[in-house]
Amino acid sequence: MPQFKIHHVTRYTYEVPVRDSANQIILFPVKDEYQTVLKQDLVITGEPAVDVYKDYYGNEVGSFMFTGAHSELKIDSKIEVVTKSRPLPDDTIPKEEQWAGLQAIRSQVPFIDFLKQESCEAVGEIKSDTQVGQYMQVTPLVAAQKLNEYVYKEFQYIQGVTSVETTPDEIWKLKAGVCQDFAHILLVMLRMISIPARYVSGYICPNRNGMRGEGATHAWVEAYIPNYGWLGLDPTNNCFVNDLHVRLAVGRNFSDCSPVKGTYKGTSNHSLEVGVSVSYEDGHVQDDHATILMPHPITNGGNKSDDNSYRRYMEMIQQQQ
C-alpha cells in the first residue's frame, strides 16, 4: 500500500491590509476503505476556528473567518495518506442487463445531478463525430474505458490554450487543454450515453513512468458502473484511477470541488502563490508551484484573468472570489 506525504500551501499577499476574510476549504482527503489519512496538519494565518461539515456530495468542507486586519493569508495543509489498490469491476453480467440498470436509476438521487448535461451546444456534433451510439453496443465498463481512451488520444495536453472560463464547446473545438478540460469533455460524453459521471479533484502522486500532472493538484472523472459503483477514469493519462491518485472531493464539475474560495473586504491588488509537493514513500519528491499576480483593482475581490491558463486554473480553484 503506497504512502504519500502531501504539502499544499496557498498564500495570499495583499498590497494593503484587508479584513473580514470568510473562506471555504476542501482540503480534507476522502476517508474510506481505499484511502486512509494517517495525519493532517492544517495551519491558517491567525489560527481561526475551522468549522468542518459534510456538503451535499459528501465532501468534508471547512469554513473559517479571519476578521482582523492582515496583509497575508496562508493556508498550509500537510497530509500523510495511505492508498489501497481496488479491484476492477466484474464485467461478466450481460450488457443488456447493465444498460437496463442504468436506465432504472436515471431519476434517483444522487444520479440525477451526475446525468444532467452541462451547457454544451456541440452535443450534436460530438455525437456525430464520436459515433457515440456505438459505445452502447458494449458494456458500460468497456464504453467508459473507450471514451476515456478517445479523449486521451484525440485531445492534446497543452498548457496555455484554455482558461478557467473555457466551455466544453470551446474545448471540443480546440481539441486541447489540461486535466480539468479532459475531465469536462469526458463528463459530457459519459452523460450523453446515460452513464452517471462526476468530477473528482485531488492529487496524482509520483510514478516512475512519468504521468501527466503528477506531484500536483489533478482532476479526473468517476463513472457509475452497474453492480460495482463509482469507477475512477483519468483521461489525462488514459488509465483507471487507483492507488497513485489521492481523492479530495467530488461534484458535478470543478466549481463544486474548489480547494479554497471565499471573500474579503479590501483591495483586490494582491498576489496568490500555490505550492504543492508530493513525496512518495521512498522519498521521491515531486513539486508544483505557481504564482499568480493580480495588479488591477476590483472592489472587495473578484475574478481576474492571467495570460497563462494553468495559472488561471490554479487561481480559480484556489482564489477568494
Automatic annotation (TrEMBL):
SMART domains: TGc. Gene3D superfamilies: 3.10.620.30. SUPFAM superfamilies: Cysteine proteinases. Pfam families: Bact_transglu_N (PF08379), Transglut_core (PF01841). This is Transglutaminase. Residues 171-237 form the Transglutaminase-like domain.
